[in-house]
């Protein structure tokens, strides 16, 4: 069902005052550069405003948007909506604020710079005058990073940042600590080296995820190509990013013709005609929007946490035929506000492969037209879906898509795939996946990675689990690269604690303004304590659970999909969420609130002990907690009196005499470990080295 259009464009002419937009108090959308009150027209909030470049005096053309669908509702708008509307497409007042000598920017500019891929931050642990800096986030569809861009980001971290790079849960870099005076230099360097931060933050489509593994398989290649095309389709078109950072010069590769065609298509009333932002208009989206593309079985992308999940469906010969679509995932919530919640994406339908861009666009437009703009707590698409239900949502999307969705195709079970270690790409080359604790690349590790990537001219990929993959490695290079990685502290996965391999944390303190408590800085100690508790109750070293920690309820490290999610809930206290599964297909639920950091063992010890004793064959911890239910689990915690002594007797067999034990204990204290932990590590490493020697 195609939507009809409203009145023809209205043209408003006004005078410029040194090129600066002038605004009166808000009475609906006004011309972004009109200064004369006699020329100020009261316009609908749905009109798009932009300066024409064809005349010496500024011409503001306000173009009618598509007529609202019958489902659209009007609400009072939030302050951010007004800022966006008055910004001349995300330019003003950021352009002026960047020219001042102040180390920070004002509130409106702080909102706008997010669309450019940056957040203003300050060190919350400093007292007195605030030390402002900016975090930059890149946009890397599929996590792809060229050799050239990696080396540039590595340089920028040292020259203008805090000396570290951070790999994010959406396959991008974060560069912390950039000063305002250096922003343009850093941004322009990234752009000139074929990188981008455009849309990495803000109310628009964020980085599009896809499996990072560089397999030369039709389905993987098609998933990655689709992710890149979706990212291009939903990239802002009005040029504000290039105007701000490279003086209007557009440094970008040519778009595939199918992307241009889908963006320009308006046969079903999706576009703002004659607007510089045909999909976004002046208001962009109500909130951030997240998309992931993958292939059957591969849930490395946490598919169901995204606003749109896209799954390649192939025929028996491995040829991609179309896509299953899932909608409405999202993690953010607010503590003790039950009307906010994490949500798993639901099946929407199947589309043939040639229709994917049109279907994605229809979903985005449905959210653009109907998502709430009055209260940002409820602006994600999951709340629209929850309010409407999937049937009504599907009907509205179909009106913008122009046809009915087919039923989703049946798929095999999902698995979490980390792609750590060495693998064949399928084209004669190898790739190597490397674990990076909390995604923080620093120190010796950072220097080692740079040396290897530079020496062998390697491209890299960032994974949704904050790890990094070195791509296109010749077989002759495997041995020297393995040696160099080990010397730099980048261990093969068999030498990394299994708990660490699946753990994630958000940055939290000291820079995140939303953090309530620690996450990235606290997770190493938490994982050590969990490992010690495992040993205490008799769980083996190769046992693991998925643990994720965030400093606030916004859920940046996706804790609500973890088997154990720790969510900051006060000074040194956390909510404990249980019930996620290792393949990230089940939503966790809050088990306990305001558990103090030092009391974690009081909760985890009885749960782990009973998991070991009462689980079914190969039952995961998340599966165990779901099967037993929270009532029984809480009873276990309440009645817990400690691990029976017989469970830990085997620990004594490691040491033949007191002198050996005391020597190991002294070394262990230096490494913040128990004597038993250190002894087990020494034995495992020795056995592994012996096995490696035989195999080679």
TrEMBL record:
GO molecular-function term, one example from the UniProt record: 4 iron, 4 sulfur cluster binding
Pfam families with a match to the protein in the record: NIR_SIR, NIR_SIR_ferr
Nitrite/Sulfite reductase ferredoxin-like domain location: 133-190, 423-476
A biological-process GO annotation: sulfate assimilation
Its EC number(s): 1.8.7.1
Cofactor: [4Fe-4S] cluster; siroheme
Catalytic activity: hydrogen sulfide + 6 oxidized [2Fe-2S]-[ferredoxin] + 3 H2O = sulfite + 6 reduced [2Fe-2S]-[ferredoxin] + 7 H(+)
UniProt xrefs under SUPFAM superfamilies: Nitrite and sulphite reductase 4Fe-4S domain-like, Nitrite/Sulfite reductase N-terminal domain-like
Entry-linked InterPro entries: NiRdtase/SiRdtase_haem-b_fer (IPR005117), Nit/Sulf_reduc_fer-like_dom_sf (IPR036136), NO2/SO3_Rdtase_4Fe4S_dom (IPR006067), NO2/SO3_Rdtase_4Fe4S_prot (IPR045169), NO2/SO3_Rdtase_4Fe4S_sf (IPR045854), NO2/SO3_Rdtase_FeS/sirohaem_BS (IPR006066), SiR_ferredoxin-dep (IPR011787)
Keyword DNA-binding: yes
Subcellular localization(s) per the UniProt record: Plastid, Chloroplast stroma, Chloroplast nucleoid
GO cellular component: chloroplast nucleoid; sulfite reductase complex (NADPH)
PROSITE patterns for this protein: NIR_SIR (PS00365)
Gene3D superfamilies to which the protein is assigned, alphabetical: Sulfite Reductase Hemoprotein, domain 1 (3.30.413.10), Sulfite Reductase Hemoprotein,Domain 2 (3.90.480.10)
Class of enzymatic activity (EC top level): oxidoreductase
UniProt domain Nitrite/sulphite reductase 4Fe-4S: residue ranges: 229-405, 502-639
Subunit architecture: Monomer. Interacts with ferredoxin.
Function of the molecule: Essential protein with sulfite reductase activity required in assimilatory sulfate reduction pathway during both primary and secondary metabolism and thus involved in development and growth.
Protein name as it appears in the record: assimilatory sulfite reductase (ferredoxin)
Organism: Gentiana triflora (Clustered gentian)
Protein encoded by which gene: GtSiR
């Amino acid at each position: 069902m195609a939507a009809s259009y409203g009145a023809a464009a209205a043209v408003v002419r006004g005078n410029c005052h040194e090129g600066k937009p002038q605004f009166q108090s808000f009475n609906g959308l006004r011309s972004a550069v009109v200064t004369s009150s006699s020329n100020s027209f009261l316009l609908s909030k749905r009109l798009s405003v932009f300066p024409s470049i064809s005349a010496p005096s500024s011409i503001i053309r306000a173009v009618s948007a598509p007529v609202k669908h019958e489902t659209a509702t009007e609400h009072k708008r939030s302050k951010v909506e007004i800022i966006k509307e008055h910004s001349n497409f995300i330019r003003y007042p950021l352009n002026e604020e960047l020219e001042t000598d102040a180390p920070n920017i004002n509130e409106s500019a702080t909102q706008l710079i997010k669309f450019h891929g940056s957040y203003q931050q300050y060190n919350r642990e400093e007292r007195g005058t605030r030390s402002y800096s900016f975090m930059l986030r890149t946009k890397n569809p599929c996590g792809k990073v060229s050799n050239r861009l990696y080396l540039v980001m590595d340089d920028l971290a040292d020259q203008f940042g805090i000396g570290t790079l951070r790999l994010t849960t959406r396959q991008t870099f974060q560069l912390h600590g950039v000063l305002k005076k250096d922003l343009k230099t850093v941004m322009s360097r990234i752009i000139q080296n074929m990188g981008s931060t455009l849309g990495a933050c803000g109310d628009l489509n964020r980085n599009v995820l896809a499996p990072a593994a560089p397999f030369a398989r039709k389905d993987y290649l098609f998933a990655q190509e689709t992710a890149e095309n979706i990212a291009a389709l939903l990239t802002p078109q009005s040029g504000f990013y290039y105007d701000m950072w490279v003086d209007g010069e557009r440094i970008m590769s040519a778009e595939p013709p199918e992307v241009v065609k889908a963006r320009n298509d308006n046969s079903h009333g999706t576009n703002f005609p004659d607007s510089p932002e045909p999909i976004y208009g002046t208001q962009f989206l109500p909130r951030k929007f997240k998309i992931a593309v993958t292939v059957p079985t591969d849930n490395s992308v946490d598919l169901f946490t995204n606003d749109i999940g896209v799954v390649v469906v192939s025929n028996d010969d491995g040829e991609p035929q179309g896509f299953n679509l899932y909608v409405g995932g999202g993690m953010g919530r607010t503590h003790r506000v039950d009307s906010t919640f994490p949500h798993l994406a639901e099946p929407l339908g199947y589309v043939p492969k040639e229709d994917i861009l049109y279907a994605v666009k229809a979903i985005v437009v449905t959210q653009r037209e109907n998502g709430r703009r009055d209260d940002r707590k409820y602006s994600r698409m999951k709340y629209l879906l929850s309010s409407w239900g999937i049937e009504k949502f599907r009907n509205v999307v179909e009106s913008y898509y122009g046809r009915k969705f087919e039923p989703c195709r049946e798929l095999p079970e999902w698995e979490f795939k980390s792609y750590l270690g060495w693998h064949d790409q399928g084209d004669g080359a190898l790739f190597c996946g490397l674990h990076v604790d909390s995604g923080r690349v620093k120190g010796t590790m950072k220097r080692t990675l740079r040396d290897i990537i530079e020496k062998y001219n390697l491209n890299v990929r960032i994974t949704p689990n904050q790890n990094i993959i070195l791509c296109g490695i010749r077989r002759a290079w495997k041995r020297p690269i393995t040696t160099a990685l080990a010397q730099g502290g980048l261990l093969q996965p068999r030498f990394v604690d299994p708990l660490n391999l699946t753990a994630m944390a958000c940055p939290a303190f000291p820079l995140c303004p939303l953090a309530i408590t620690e996450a990235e800085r606290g997770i190493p100690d938490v994982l050590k304590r969990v490992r010690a508790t495992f040993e205490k109750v008799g769980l083996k070293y190769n046992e693991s659970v998925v643990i994720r920690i965030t400093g606030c309820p916004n859920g940046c490290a996706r804790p609500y999909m973890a088997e154990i999610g720790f969510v900051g809930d006060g000074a040194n206290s956390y909510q404990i969420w249980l019930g996620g599964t290792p393949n990230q297909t089940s939503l966790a639920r809050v088990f306990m609130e305001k558990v103090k950091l030092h009391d974690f063992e009081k909760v985890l010890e009885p749960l782990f002990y009973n998991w070991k004793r009462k689980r079914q064959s190969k039952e995961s911890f998340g599966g165990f907690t779901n099967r037993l239910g929270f009532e029984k689990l809480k009873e276990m915690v309440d009645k817990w009196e400690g691990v029976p002594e017989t469970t830990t007797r085997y620990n004594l067999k490691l040491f033949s005499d007191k002198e050996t034990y005391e020597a190991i204990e002294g070394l262990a204290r230096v490494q913040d470990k128990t004597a038993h932990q250190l002894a087990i590590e020494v034995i495992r490493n020795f056995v592994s080295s012996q096995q490696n020697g035989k195999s080679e």
